[in-house]
Amino acid sequence: MKIVMVGSGYVGLVSGACFADFGHEVVCVDKLESKVSALKRGEIPIFEPGLSEIVRSNAAAGRLSFTTDLAGPVAGADAVFIAVGTPSRRGDGFADLSYVYAATREIAGAIRGYTVIVTKSTVPVGTGDEVERIIRELRPDADFAVVSNPEFLREGAAIEDFKRPDRIVVGTDDERARAVMADIYRPLYLNNAPILNTGRRTAELTKYAANAFLATKITFINEIADLCEQVGANVQDVARGMGLDNRIGGKFLHAGPGYGGSCFPKDTLALIKTAQDHGTPSRIVETVAAVNEQRKRAMGRKVVAACGGSVRGKTIAVLGLTFKPNTDDMRDAPSIAVVTALMDGGATIRAYDPEGMEQAKAVLPAGVTYCRDAYECVAGADAAVIVTEWNIFRALDLDRVKAAMVAPVLVDLRNVYRAEQVRAKGFTYADVGRGLDA
Ligand code: NAD
């Protein structure tokens, strides 16, 4: 199969590289010249474990190439995937579809012969209809079908998720398009990955429903964590006790600073807007988004409380900036709200993240001091806060940390340490939802 991937970011590059690894001929297109030239030199513009190997080997085998020119490859393609960003639109939170529609117009001008256009970007219900309308209007002669094939990969485990997905959702009523999609994904369903064939609108909504449900699970356990703190219970044990029930499942029941990242915040907002526009408001998701938003700043107040009620004039070491470990992605990371709240309270911030510092510099307030490692970060600090649970923060030499700090205060927003172990070293220790009997 000849595949074009329009947009070579976290999703487009991973999907394109994995499709090439299945044996397809893939051209990844991006409008960012700098990204494309880096990829051509064999440099990977994002941090994603395993990605550089798979990109390099497939490029060397001639199955994967990169270009800014969309028209040439699209003309010869069996399928064109749209994997551009769909960020929150300023003002109302709906998905900004301008990149999707711009890509659609470019694709429309270039298609030759029967072509399947696939929205892999997360797009609100009805976007496929609009993509189809645009192409039909610009190219009444074109032979094409528009399919929704949402992506469920997680950053940090993207290759594994793409190659061993829990399911592949293909939304189309067009039999020819379904056959093309089956050919593209054949290596996966030979591996027993279930393919769920649905209508296009159903596929589009499935992605939002899945993300909103996961965001709800996280927010639910975060509220239980707050209650645990008040009543002296341990949220990790509560979560374990809940999660062992197969109807609930243990995943996404880790209390922490609130969800962030490039998907859950924007996708919950877009679903809320879609539901409101259709006169069926999603009150649960509205509450989840509001509770999560409050929570991130509340984590700043937790640090202030651990510092005795004020951080004015104090130095706080922030360990971990990305929204989760094993990525460099800073989009909507909880660290942004935590750092901002602490700076608002008069603190000076030192920060360290293994992969996210370049992106962090673009989004965190000016004045943050970026450090080379965790120990340099805590040097001279009045408190240290673990915001992202990178493995290297799970096994810190606590004696060395304590010796470097002005005051031994550790706020563990990911519950990576055992309270008694840290307190035995002489730290003041605060965590999330592990009350007195923790
Ligand atoms: P991204 O910002 O990393 O990548 C998007 C890329 O598209 C950018 O490199 C941009 O330059 C390029 N682009 C924009 N317009 C273009 C055009 N007209 N032609 C060519 N290239 C163009 O975004 P991402 O994280 O890969 O997300 C893409 C989509 O996938 C979003 O809808 C997102 O919600 C969805 N998604 C993301 C994840 C994730 O974990 N990141 C997971 C599942 C789904």
Automatic annotation (TrEMBL):
Its EC number is 1.1.1.22. Pfam families: UDPG_MGDP_dh, UDPG_MGDP_dh_C, UDPG_MGDP_dh_N. It comes from the Bacteria. InterPro entries: 6-PGluconate_DH-like_C_sf (IPR008927), NAD(P)-bd_dom_sf (IPR036291), UDP-Glc/GDP-Man (IPR017476), UDP-Glc/GDP-Man_DH_C (IPR014027), UDP-Glc/GDP-Man_DH_C_sf (IPR036220), UDP-Glc/GDP-Man_DH_dimer (IPR014026), UDP-Glc/GDP-Man_DH_N (IPR001732), UDPglc_DH_bac (IPR028357). It catalyses: UDP-alpha-D-glucose + 2 NAD(+) + H2O = UDP-alpha-D-glucuronate + 2 NADH + 3 H(+). Keywords: NAD, Oxidoreductase. Signal peptide: none annotated. Residues 317-419 form the UDP-glucose/GDP-mannose dehydrogenase C-terminal domain. Pathway: Nucleotide-sugar biosynthesis; UDP-alpha-D-glucuronate biosynthesis; UDP-alpha-D-glucuronate from UDP-alpha-D-glucose: step 1/1. It is an enzyme of class 1 (oxidoreductase). Belongs to the UDP-glucose/GDP-mannose dehydrogenase family. This is UDP-glucose 6-dehydrogenase. It comes from Bosea robiniae. The lineage of its organism: Bacteria, Pseudomonadati, Pseudomonadota, Alphaproteobacteria, Hyphomicrobiales.
